[in-house]
Write a structure and sequence with these properties.
The structure holds 2 protein chains of 2 kinds. Chain A is α+β, with helices and mostly antiparallel strands. Chain A is 32% helix and 35% strand. Chain A is elongated and about 85 Å long. In chain A, 21% of the residues are buried. By secondary structure, chain B is mostly helical. A 3-stranded antiparallel beta sheet of chain B has the order 1-2-3, with helices on one face. In chain B, a hairpin with a 2-residue loop joins strand 2 and strand 3 (154-156). The chains are: A alpha+beta, B mainly alpha. At the A-B interface, helix 1 of A face helix 1, helix 3 and helix 12 of B.
Chain lengths: 145, 407
């Protein structure tokens, strides 16, 4: 009797264990999808000297290359010049071994550095300002009026 | 937490409870007469699990509930096996599970509100040193290594606690992503390894060595050190083979256990027989012969599980362990503060290596080393320390999501 029960129940156990796993894998896949799905805006932007705005996402490459996220046409800028990425709730900038270097507030950066509002980033001859998106949006509306 | 995710988590809690109840009902009829002991055990387990899950979820809305559910599930399977093999140790294990849950809760709480204690890496090293040195002086020898301290009936293994302090030590030293004083740093690591080797806890020494190697690589991304470390591991292995008798015995038993079946190869051969007996679906709970396997409640519990739940059950268990490690690595990756990130990684790495070592050992993939299978093996200090480490991991993720001070 016990033998029969045990032999039947082993299939039940295996089904239950795999159902448990299936549920967790579902959560895991949803997690990974959520991270990969369309890049999230960070609420920060880069503003260049001509007033052009570049919205910053979780990961942005800056450079001359056509597949860079933010394309900057300047002879002094490398094809993949710098990287701005999100870690935790902060944005960091990293130089991608560019020929002419990346400067943050006129200091050459050698390791990933945290960006703060109103920081000035210099790539080649171009200067950018790191700003919060909303502040610029408000300014824009004031232009319209 | 999203309602959909929450529903899935609750479903998994229910599955864990259901597995326990079904197994307990089955085991209650095992001897031919009805004995309610496993049913009581399973009910107590369910109460602790429910209280633990809902209480932590209520108090810490930002926690990672998956950690607790995954380790409850593994504990449940471990307890089922223990009730089947030896109900007396299962009852003790249940008490340890309760204490572990309580400590999980406490360590999560402490870690969440933990304002960066600036003690510096040296204090962490000192604590690790004292923990590992204490059994050399006060300890008792069990299972061929002098790494236990006895309090009355209760045996405690300080190296379990040292795993946590050692990961904190590594994380604190390497939080700038570079090794500042390499002679001092490597000297400290070798002192720790030396203490473990001196206590003849070579499995532990290997665990600490590889954990250190992985954390150093993760922190500094230096391939040269990793290659050197791997070469060092080979050299240490060869030296161990030369100078330690039981390393030679273990290695020989691994290379060819059939040479000396009743003697040196006995453990591993019995383990392999059990695994072969299991087949795809297992023999069914209570129908295997775990009593033939030595040390079946501690080191070889995986073989017993394999025999009765089969290849399908055992491979699912390995995936559950993988999920636990995946959650740990995911938590470490989301954290900006490099000290917390590396401590989380360290704890996860210790888990990962330990699981690989013991499962690899019992299935004869690598030589057998006597480490416990976290959450599953019978043993108080292993259970409690595994829960504390996961509690710390949980506290780390809460700090990160709570956006508390980080630098």
């Amino acid at each position: 009797m016990f033998e029969l029960l045990s032999r039947t129940l082993r299939y039940v156990f295996i089904v239950l264990i795999y159902y448990f796993l299936y549920n967790f894998l579902k959560i895991m896949i949803a997690d990974l999808r959520g991270e990969k799905s369309q890049p999230k805006e960070t609420g920060f932007i880069l503003l260049d000297e001509n007033g052009n705005k570049y919205t910053l996402f979780d990961i942005n490459t800056l450079g001359r290359a056509e597949d860079a996220d933010i394309i900057i046409d300047d002879p002094f800028i490398s094809s993949k010049h710098a990287l701005i990425f999100k870690r935790g709730s902060k944005l960091l900038i990293q130089d991608l071994h560019s020929t002419n270097g990346t400067f943050l507030n006129n200091k050459k950066i050698t390791r990933p550095l945290r960006l703060k509002e109103n920081d000035e980033i210099t790539l080649g001859t171009k200067k950018f300002k790191f700003l919060r998106g909303e502040t610029v949006g408000a300014e824009d509306r004031s232009y319209l009026q | 937490m999203e309602p959909r995710t929450e529903a899935i988590y609750n479903k998994n809690i229910a599955i864990t409870a259901l597995v326990g109840i079904l197994a307990a009902l089955l085991l209650a009829f095992r001897e031919g007469v009805f004995s309610p002991v496993p049913i009581y055990g399973s009910l107590i387990f369910i109460v602790i699990m429910f209280v633990g899950h809902f209480l932590t979820n209520h108090l810490f809305p930002k926690q990672d509930p998956a950690l607790f559910i995954l380790c409850c599930f593994i504990c449940q399977l471990g307890l089922v096996m223990l009730y089947r093999i030896d109900p007396e140790s299962a009852a003790k294990q249940l008490i340890w599970f309760g204490i572990g849950c309580l400590l999980y809760f406490i360590s999560s709480f402490v870690c969440r509100t933990w304002i960066e204690i600036k003690v510096g890496p040296f204090i962490f090293f000192l604590v690790t040193f004292v923990l590992l040195a204490s059994p050399l002086i006060f300890g008792v020898e069990r299972y061929g290594s002098k790494s236990w301290i006895s309090f009355g009936n209760f045996l405690f293994q300080p190296s379990e606690l040292a795993k946590i302090t050692f990961s904190l030590f590594l994380a604190d030293t390497l939080k700038e992503h570079k090794i500042e004083d390499s002679i001092k740093f490597f000297g400290q690591i070798f002192v720790v390894l030396g203490l473990l080797a001196f206590a003849r806890d070579l499995g532990g020494a290997m665990l600490f060595y590889f954990a250190a190697l992985i954390i150093i690589f993760a922190a500094t991304s230096r391939l040269d050190l990793t290659v050197l470390g791997l070469i060092g591991a080979v050299v240490a292995g060869l030296l161990g083979y030369q100078f330690f008798g039981h390393v030679r015995v273990r290695t020989k038993a691994w290379l060819n256990p059939w040479e000396d079946v009743p003697g040196k190869g006995y453990q591993i051969v019995q383990s392999l027989f059990a695994i072969a007996e299991g087949g795809f679906f297992g023999t069914g709970l209570g129908l295997g012969r775990p009593d033939y396997i030595p040390a079946v409640t501690t080191d070889f519990i995986f073989s017993a599980f394999f025999e009765e739940f089969g290849f399908l059950g055992a491979s699912a268990l390995i995936v559950v362990y993988f999920l636990l490690i995946y959650r740990g690595i995911k938590i470490s990756l989301t954290i900006e503060n490099s000290f917390l990130c590396l401590s989380g990684l360290g704890i996860t790495v210790f888990f990962g290596i330990q699981i690989f070592t013991i499962i690899g050992g019992v299935i004869k993939l690598i030589p057998m080393t006597g480490v416990t299978l976290p959450f599953m093996s019978y043993g108080g200090s292993s259970m409690v320390m595994s829960f504390i480490s996961l509690g710390i991991l949980n506290g780390i993720i809460m700090r990160a999501l709570g956006g508390e001070a980080d630098g």
